[in-house]
Amino acid sequence: MELVLATKNLDKIKEIKETFKNLGVKIFTFKDFPHFPSVVEDKETLYGNALKKARTIARFTGKIALADDSGLQVEALGGAPGVFSARFAGEKATYKDNNRKLLSLLEEIPLDRRKATFRCFIAISGGGIKERVVEGICKGRILQEMRGENGFGYDPLFQPEGSTRTFAQMSLKEKGEISHRGKALRKAGKVLEEWGNTTVIGLTGNIGSGKTTAARMFAELGAEIIEADKIGHDLIKKAEVEENLIRTFGSSILDEKKKIERRKLGRIVFKDKKKLEELNQILHPLIGSEIKKKIVSSKARVVIIDAAILLEAGWDSLVDKVLVVSASYEAQLKRIKKSTRFSPEEIEGIMQAQGPQDKKIQRADFLIRNEGSLEETRRQVEQIWGELVARC
Length: 392
Ligand code: ATP
Prior knowledge:
Layout lengths: L1 E4 L4 H10 L6 E3 L17 H16 L2 E11 L20 H11 L9 E11 L5 E12 L15 E3 L11 H7 L1 H16 L3 E6 L6 H11 L2 E4 H8 L3 H11 L12 H8 L3 H25 L4 E5 L14 E6 L2 H10 L5 H10 L3 H7 L2 E4 L4 H18 L1
Parallel strand pairs: 1-2, 1-3, 7-9, 7-10, 8-9, 10-11
Antiparallel strand pairs: 3-4, 4-5, 5-6
Helix pairs in contact: 4-5, 6-14, 7-10, 8-10
């Protein structure tokens, strides 16, 4: 697995690399990416800043990004400097400037009233639903003078509970075992280990392009397939959804057993854009959360979400990569007409309701051109599978 650190602070990079040295992840830093952005830390909380940094860098690099935002909360100062820890003595303040300011503010405060807590939030963002924030804290007190040369930031003033030394008097390893960042990093490491096991692919393409055919080939290779259509079909059998749909579209969508007949519902929505939108507003969020549940509980290395409207419904936000299966309009039409599932008007309606194929291809991380024989398609599937498995 690859991980990029969303910081330009060399001291933090050193600490994180030390903690993750046995995790088996390949670590990238800002030095590996020209034009690596500096993220403005303008959120009101450490949590918010950490998440903003991780999301920005994940988007910029296309890799899982890890960001930390840490702060020192001093009881006698009502929790300051907190989110302003790095720039306590001003925007361009050095570690020394910040320490001096802290010492001067606490000048009158005796040692037993100089309690402080170091708090660290680590955000990991990998695009898709892969996003987590974990926290680590370390309690201690602020000494009356700086001690030690190691570490960085407020380390020379901070003496953790149960220790006679400051963080700056400890080795990187010793500090990491008890520090706020060390604790948060270990939690983050567990999250990365869990994530390392699953890659989520959104498989899409227009009707008749060959999604189901490709999905079956991936399943034979060991992928778990989640079918959005099937989830939708099961959902409309649930009482509360059924009631909502009858309220919205009337009882003409029911069969003789008073159950929803999908085909009747389809006939209404595929010839009326507004009605289709109403249906989508009811079903898409519900299908999205079912997909999410299935991804989270999956133990497969590769999970494939088979969804014709992956992009239109915004479910691409749930996946790591998008795979598009394409075919010419003529090939699509020929294949669908072979199936007795749909009437010509229904085919026309469905094709209209699905977004244009070109737009899907533009969004594709992987593309299967399903124009030729099934063997040719299988070869493309196997090649993509090889890349996915090598990746995770
Ligand atoms: P839908 O959106 O309707 O579910 P789909 O994109 O999943 O369609 P498939 O069901 O995979 O498409 O394919 C439609 C039909 O075309 C199927 O009968 C399938 O067997 C056939 N087909 C798919 N690809 C090829 C191919 N390369 N050569 C021949 N037949 C194919």
